[in-house]
Amino acid sequence: MMNLRKELDQRGMAKVGEELHRFAADLYPICRSITGDGIRRTMAMIQARIPLQLSEVPTGTPVFDWTVPKEWNIRDAYIASSDGKRVADFRTCNLHVLNYSTPVHATMSLSELKPHLFTIPEHPDWVPYRTSYYKESWGFCLPHHQMLALEDGDYEVCIDSTLDDGHLTYGECYLPGQSTDEVLISCHACHPSLANDNLSGLTVATSLAQFLSGRDLRYSYRFLFIPGTIGAITWLARNRETVGHIRHGLVLTCIGDAGGFHYKKSRRGNAEIDRAAACVLNHCGESAETAEFSPYGYDERQYCSPGFNLPVGCLMRSIWGSCPEYHTSADDLDFIRPLQLAGSLRVCTAIVDVLENNRRYRNLSPYGEPQLGRRNLYCSTGGDTIATDINGRLWVLNFSDGEHSLLDIAERSGLSFSLISEAADLLYQNGLLSVVPDDGGGEKTLDEPTHDTLQHS
Amino acid sequence: MMNLRKELDQRGMAKVGEELHRFAADLYPICRSITGDGIRRTMAMIQARIPLQLSEVPTGTPVFDWTVPKEWNIRDAYIASSDGKRVADFRTCNLHVLNYSTPVHATMSLSELKPHLFTIPEHPDWVPYRTSYYKESWGFCLPHHQMLALEDGDYEVCIDSTLDDGHLTYGECYLPGQSTDEVLISCHACHPSLANDNLSGLTVATSLAQFLSGRDLRYSYRFLFIPGTIGAITWLARNRETVGHIRHGLVLTCIGDAGGFHYKKSRRGNAEIDRAAACVLNHCGESAETAEFSPYGYDERQYCSPGFNLPVGCLMRSIWGSCPEYHTSADDLDFIRPLQLAGSLRVCTAIVDVLENNRRYRNLSPYGEPQLGRRNLYCSTGGDTIATDINGRLWVLNFSDGEHSLLDIAERSGLSFSLISEAADLLYQNGLLSVVPDDGGGEKTLDEPTHDTLQHS
Amino acid sequence: MMNLRKELDQRGMAKVGEELHRFAADLYPICRSITGDGIRRTMAMIQARIPLQLSEVPTGTPVFDWTVPKEWNIRDAYIASSDGKRVADFRTCNLHVLNYSTPVHATMSLSELKPHLFTIPEHPDWVPYRTSYYKESWGFCLPHHQMLALEDGDYEVCIDSTLDDGHLTYGECYLPGQSTDEVLISCHACHPSLANDNLSGLTVATSLAQFLSGRDLRYSYRFLFIPGTIGAITWLARNRETVGHIRHGLVLTCIGDAGGFHYKKSRRGNAEIDRAAACVLNHCGESAETAEFSPYGYDERQYCSPGFNLPVGCLMRSIWGSCPEYHTSADDLDFIRPLQLAGSLRVCTAIVDVLENNRRYRNLSPYGEPQLGRRNLYCSTGGDTIATDINGRLWVLNFSDGEHSLLDIAERSGLSFSLISEAADLLYQNGLLSVVPDDGGGEKTLDEPTHDTLQHS
Questions:
Q1: Is the pLDDT of residue C385 over 50?
Q2: Exposure string (b/e) for A56-84, b if CB count within 10 Å is 16 or more?
Q3: Burial call A397-408: b when 16+ CB within 10 Å, e when fewer
């Protein structure tokens, strides 16, 4: 049986966390947007680690109710006071420019400038992150106290950007498994210097893909690194006929901060991914909550739109928008933490363990309990209470009636999936269980090894 | 879309409440019973406000397991001490006489009189309300302290009543709508000077009928003003073949006191009226609870008897019997309050809004989200959190899959029905939704206006 | 209608409890095990009270995945110090010997002896109960402080036991009822001097069988007095074809201690026995909890194995293993209490009352309420609140639609089953209900007495 989570634990969480954070630091300075060279450079850095197929979709391509927008690129942007001093400088912090700003180079009075300025009065030291993808506009974001300090007078305003026909870029890493049924892992790659909100997902997803790469997997895995909303819609529009392969999916976002986990269920609400995530989080050792689906959030909005209704949930730590750092310059490299990134990867591996190992078995000795003692699967001296691992075996035996999956049994017993899965493995090795095939075909027992078990040995 | 609740709010709750209370004050002095001139006078006063069809059912008419009883009328009743002083006087308070008392005129000793006296020892200043409809008897109700103060001696006892063949009277106001499917609003009109327990329901139901009158309604509405139990049984017996038209129903009772709302579900437990009432109460801004059905209470007992099992719930404020004023002289005009009466009417209108507007829609752009921004249905600057009304639009779009009704969506989102309904209306106006017909016929979109929408314009 | 619980109450709980405790005291000294003369003597003492059919199953008989083991008998066992003093003596307390010890007679040093000694360091004065049924071994159990006090030197070790081909013994009391559908009551009889853990179940089950004996019963009742695990497996193996008769079942164990009740549901989770037990416990007047099924515990493990999945729950007081006395010499005659034993029998009779009386009725006057007043089933003076018994009648009338059983109605109303059952009986006597037959045959009313009611008269 696959036990990625145990393998990861053996690597050491501190080390894993440092690696994730270092990758985030490398990606941090890039000015990403939903199109343009920022996202291209990001894809190239991911491609250096995992096999990534890049797609370039031309401006103007219709994608469902949307159209691929013009491509945006930017070299520089600033507001300079009359003495030439830059009071807001794109080179210092790419959040200063309203993302997707049209080019402008002009001199104007403060009162003309002000309608183009965005600030956060409640957090006067932070720069907000604002965008204007679909309405042509330009603007600057700056700390509120800095805006207040602007003196009357003329300002030179320069945004050296281009907004022209070009392409929308996204990356896709496909790891084929035994089945063409897929697990989709999706994260957005369209935010500039925001660490938790995009880099945490990007880095964990990349590491998970590295970790799964080269293994003999039950499912195929598809990792999407895409611009939010328009990217997911574009990908869905181009893959409309094949999304039926997606059996389980997870949007990864905001999984590097110090908060506990939040898993938002898919629109279906009881999909296997929803139950797998809840079961893993119940036993992950960190504070964790599950929430019902809602149609506002990240790209689960698109995957769970009613025409698709895919079984895709969303794994977060602090719920986006619940902490003031969200969409501000305070979502920086200090806001994400190595151990939290590693813990998120750990939860992802444990979820993959559930998906890979979840099966239905059949107890081959279903009348009364089989005699575990003579197989050295019980305690030999009676009278004492049994240990948790023996308890797990009894649960697997009792509910392996061909109907209940290991995940069903883990849920009902309150024991961790890994304990239940290990018990099933041991009982199977001892000839007490057969595997119930998903497709209704012949059941496998240990004595009749199949292609599946041969491949593993 | 119909928004009665908003219209009512525009009238001003204080004004609406004063009108309701004034009508209650007009009705208060009448000595009503399950038959007789008291209920006839009450019907006449309601008929002055709304179109009311009166029925007179002869004594002796078999109605299911019951028989319409003799008609009771009363002119006067008193107990007088030997000096001629009235110690209990019907003219002062009609509760003094045991309702449905047979005529009596005699002089008797205190010990002969006492078995005919009813008091409330726990509330020695209040007169209890007691009845003896089906066992011929006579009696007086008086304050406990007054009973204790009666001195030995002879008393003149007079009840100037008649109990003869006659009729049972009830009133019915039918407002036809587009469909013959009906909403039933029922309240009892058989209690003498009790304000919360009968007048609150009578006045609110009358105002609701006035308010609905002359509108283009989806459903037909039937308001019943009937004597409790025997009236409902009589009406059901006479309309047994057509009660199948009742799609939703509400018994209104005890809705004028200072307590929070209690909605008692229909026997079905998950009827649309049950869900509509719960959803409205969740957002009504007053304390509110829902309770499961039980077979004791008001006329929902009859509508929800197993042979009918109609989807009829019961809206109350304080649960009858839970406050000591119940069925005593303390349930007077001070016990009901103008703002509480108005608030109850407001909840009724909001429930009607749900029933009238609840439909299933189909998202015409179900693959990914439609681009709300270019329709001015989204915020143009990205990065900030969205407002509740936009959130409502996303909920309606995501769950308008032809299966979920607006009420389903309101329940699932936790948003108010009116917000969801307004969102659906706006999306429909923008061509993003079609209406799923209840009868499986062709779906309507904005571009193909139907009889329904034409009628509205 | 049967009302065993009321009959039992009339006998007086104190007296009933004393009798139960006296029987437990008689059984206490016997050294029982899963085979041998100890369980045979126990069966004989039960047989003196109720008709018991004994089975003797030969060693070596295959029973599903198990084999009936050799028969164990023991005459004496001791550890004697070099001065001949017995430091552990089977005659003083039969727990001193590891149950199923092979014979041994040798002299050995303390260090050779120690691996054969079992103690409880946390409770140094108590003797633990340990067994070695399926791995040939020998050993002694003793108080921890006594073990620590053993001085170096040689010890004479003697276990005068036999472990030879023989038989496994169990007893079965079958009380035939009107139907061949059975209620199974099972308890284990394989523990030596342990009072709560086996004697409480044995004595209560015996008394229940005595109490039911000679009555006209709806169901047949089968009481099993068997060795734990292997006994249940043996019985199941020998009765595999007929266990389908078991409609309801209860394992009785650890029901004499001072704790509140715990009912562990059957694997099915919503079997009638599960609901009957929960309903009775909710109204039993003692603290009581219900727990979901788990595959570890007593013989419900076997009855609820997936091949059988019988509707068998387990009634306990303190959950085995939750109190330190479990499986130690402290589970003695003081640990079980007369009133607790009687209270457990009382709950068992109430559960039998539910099973015997639970039926579906049909309201013969389902349109509106029938007029209870003219049948003297209501209060004649109106206006006051109704009593609980009248409320029970309204519940039975409203939900006797042919679908809801009395247990359904008791659950939904929150009223006790006995109140509901008495209400149904009274309404049936008044011709207001018919009995809905389980088999779909003709309905019975009072006017058409059937074989069933004739038998009762």
A1: yes
A2: ebebeeebbbbbbbbbbbbeebbbbeeee
A3: bbbbbeebbbbb
Q: Evaluate whether B9 touches B350 at the Cβ level (below 8 Å).
A: no
The H or E element spanning position B86 is strand B86-89
- The predicted complex's ipTM stands at 0.93
Q: Kindly state the average pLDDT of the residues A8-23.
A: 97
CB count, 10 Å around CB of B229? 21
Considering the entire predicted model, what is its pTM?
0.93
Neighbours of C303 (CB within 10 A): 28
Integer Cα distance of C338 and C349 in angstroms: 17
Residue type, B16: V
Residue whose C-alpha is closest to residue C127's, from C109, C145, C103, C115: C145
Q: How far apart are CA B141 and CA C33, in angstroms?
A: 75
Q: Please name the helix (run of DSSP H) or strand (run of DSSP E) that holds residue C192, with its range, or none.
A: none
Residues 6 or more apart in contact with residue A124 via CB below 8 angstroms: A143, A144, A145, A148
Judge whether A135 is closer than 8 Å to chain B, CB to CB: yes
Distance from CA of A440 to the nearest CA of B (A): 31
Q: Which of A188-197, A306-315, C84-93, C319-328 has the lowest mean pLDDT?
A: C319-328
Choosing among A378, A379, A380, A381, which should be mutated to test the C contact, i.e. which has the most C CBs within 10 A?
A381
Q: Which helix (H) or strand (E) holds C92?
A: none
Task: Name the residue among B261, B151, B255 with its Cα closest to residue B199.
Answer: B255
- Torsion, Cα of C378, C379, C384, C387 (10° steps): -60
* Contacts for A53 with CB less than 8 Å, ≥ 6 apart: A171, A172, A173, A174
Within 8 A by CB and 6+ apart from A391, the residues are: A413, A415, C296
Angle at C52 between CA C48 and CA C54, to 5 degrees: 115
Q: Give the span between the Cα atoms of A12 and A6, in whole angstroms.
A: 10
At A226 the three-state DSSP class reads: strand
C-alpha–C-alpha distance, residues C139 and C294, integer Å: 31
From its phi and psi, is residue A310 left (phi > 0), alpha (psi between -120 and 50) or beta? beta
pLDDT tens-digit profile of C46-56?
Answer: 999 999 999 99
Q: Closest Cα to residue A74, out of A132, A33, A110?
A: A33
Cβ-Cβ contacts under 8 Å, B369 against chain A: 65, 229, 233, 301-302, 305
Q: What is the pLDDT of residues B321-336, one digit of tens each?
A: 788 999 999 999 999 9
Q: Phi first, then psi: what are they for B27, rounded to 5°?
A: -80, -20
Give the CA-trace dihedral at C145, C149, C155, C156, to 10 degrees.
-40
Residue C346 and residue C5 in contact, taking contact as beta carbons nearer than 8 Å: yes
Residue A121 in tokens: 């009065």
CB atoms within 10 A of CB A105: 9
> Is C368 close to B232, i.e. CB distance below 8 A?
yes
Whether residue B374 and residue A134 make contact (CB cut-off 8 A), yes or no, is yes
Nearest to A118 by CA among B390, B386, B383: B383
- CB of B449 within 8 Å of any CB in chain A? no
- Closest to B316 (Cα-Cα) out of B182, B453, B204, B454: B204
Confirm if A32 and A39 have CB atoms less than 8 A apart. yes
Q: C440: Cβ–Cβ under 8 A, 6 or more apart, which residues?
A: none
Burial of residue A438, with CB atoms counted within 10 A of its CB: 0-12 exposed, 13-18 middle, 19 or more buried = exposed
B441 CB burial (10 A radius; 0-12, 13-18, 19+):
exposed
pLDDT beyond 90 at C440: no
Pairwise CA distance, residues C138 & C102, whole Å = 5
On whether any CB of chain B is under 8 Å from the CB of C434, the answer is no
CB contact under 8 A, A66 and B368: yes
pLDDT tens for each residue of B344-367? 999 999 999 999 999 999 999 999
